[in-house]
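haha ok so turns out i had the wrong file open the whole time. this is the CORRECT one, sorry everyone. sequence first:
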Amino acid sequence: RRWIEHRPLVLIMSTGIAVRACAPLLGHKASDPAVVCLDEAGRSVIPLLGGHRGGANELAHKIAALTGGHAAVTTASDTQGLPALDLLGRAEGWKIAPDSALTHAMGCLVNGESLGCYVDPALAAQRDQLAEWLSDCPNLTFVEQPEQLLEPAYSAALLVSHRTLAAIWPMLQAKAVCYVPPVLVAGLGCRRGVPADELGAALETVLGDAGFNPASIAALATVEQKADEPGMIALAQSLGVPLQIVTAAQLANLDPARFSPSAATAHLDLPGVAERAAVLVSGGSLLLPKRAFTRCTVAVAANPQPLSLPGSAEAASCENLPPSPIPGEGGQGDEVQHNPGHLTLVSLGPGDPQQMTLAAHAALRDAEVVVGYQGYIDSISDLLTPQQQIIASGMKTEMDRALQAIEQAEAGRRVALVSSGDIGIYAMAGPVFEGLRGRGWDGQRPRVTVLPGISAFQAAAAQLGAAISHDFSVISLSDLLTPWELIERRVAAAAAADMVVAFYNPRSRDRHWQLGVALDILRAHRPPTTPVTFATNVARPDQRMVITTLAEADPALADMFTVVLIGNSRSYVAGGHVVTPRGYEARARGEHAGSTFVSAAAPAGDYPVVLTGMVGAPVVVVGGGAVGERKVRGLLATGAVVRLISPEASAQLQAWAAEGQLAWEQRPYVSGDLVGVRLAFAASNQRDVNAQVAQDAAKHGVLCNVADAPAEGSFHVPALHRTPGLTIAVSTSGAEPARAATIRDAIARWLVAGAPEK
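then structure:
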């Protein structure tokens, strides 16, 4: 029963049993169903019958993607990387003339014999498509006249036309395949109750007299008042095309000078239906003016560009669709549904094809165009087909690549833009949406879908065990697009927050020092035994995983294909795996699972308030600007011994130095400047200098205040109000000094006003 219904059959059994079961049922390759055979484990998926026409090859690839097996496709065109002639244009709705010599032409193609190809001059878009699909065919020649295909030099011939080619086809039929693209729209008008056979006869007459192939009809079109006309609905069903409905307002919006007078004006108070409906739905130009029959009218319009039309023959509205590109027309109501295109952003995962999602596999199979970095295209070459257009490019062309994909989708094509890992993490999703915004994208045309994937840091963490079981941060160390000062602040913030950190883009030939700086920042906040993993080429055949410690971590182990994963202060190695506990075991013991390591540069949640004597205490202030001057002013009042290190200094600082109140060393800061110091103030206008002061202070056990990144420091200076016998300190932990000063002043005013002593 399934065989008779032409439904695809998937047989989980040996090929011998499958062949014997199918043998008595075999008919013709054009009518037999697709048959796919696979073993119980799904390792080998074999299309037995209907490889191309029945879709068995495609079905085998889908099943193999589900089972993780291999699609053992044996058709000659596929094994040689050649296009399947019986699949050309199928996605675009092309039909193959039933008397075509398909087997002969396919044999000539795979045997390397010469093929001639003729495309009707009116079908320029189809010619470009065909040239693209057949670009890997070495012995293909395009001709300008179909008669040229009769020459013996061409062993086989391909023709693409919306015409019948009645004069030449009988002479070519024995060696040729004729493709008929759906580029025509027939507009219909009729009286109430005209049957389908009468409408069909009128349409056949119009097409036949003009020499057009009925198979080139993409849709029928009429006005909304005829949407329920049984004859039109039945005719559309018999032709296997949709019946497109336009509104009276859309018809009226067109310039009447471009169309024939119509009786519909008198009968329905409408402008002409057949011509205008055909033009509106096709989005092209009128090819055959209206021809009136006894009870109906027929007109034909053409547009060689692909149309996106409903697949059923039921009435479908053209309302709320994009404007028609008809020259000289426009405005509200002048609308037609063209293919909006679909751009799918496909995440390929870390490298192992089995870690690519089923949705990604499906998107690659469905794509007409695949766009991506050459290395990524190479990695999925076995998933691509000769019928697909491949647009590959090199490194550092991300924006160009994104715009290429957008332009292909805007042209109405199904496009897959690929990227490794997750396409939304340091990958192509960003450039695509930036490009769309720049083009005034409305969110609909083209449609855009983003398919997530497994990123390298996730794949690495999974192999390590439980490395990111708690809060984590992913940071790229590449300063090609992000200033290093900003990257450094982010690293310091993640370090101070005791997060697991994953570094992307850690090291390249020209960027060799950033990883070392980032590791030094983390060393000031974490124990030297903290696990560090260098994961290179994760989930690929040449994968390398090196687990070491923060103290021993060598930046030379990293390159641009490495993810560096640093644990938090509680992470540990167990049995060759890295674990970052979230606290379940500690909670069961009634313990708190907070950080076990606090460095001099890692601020605790609360600061103890201590009033300490600073008379004679050695203090270093790095930075001679306004901030440094403010720090020095407060320090001098305490009696501290201040040493200012800065190539330049404000006028006030220079005056204090001249008076001997401080020692000014007019030079840049160097790491040894904090030896023997009690307090350090990083107050320069250079982020890297302040960060270095904080790191050196942590190494030497010196308390440090960092003006531009309070979280890097180990103490903050509160806003003070002093009166005899009373000191009030207000602090926002360095986050909002101005606010602290405002609150301090408000308290001072309150005290001066005579607040009660309580």
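Residues 310-337, 600-605 have pLDDT under 50 and may be disordered.
again sry for the mixup
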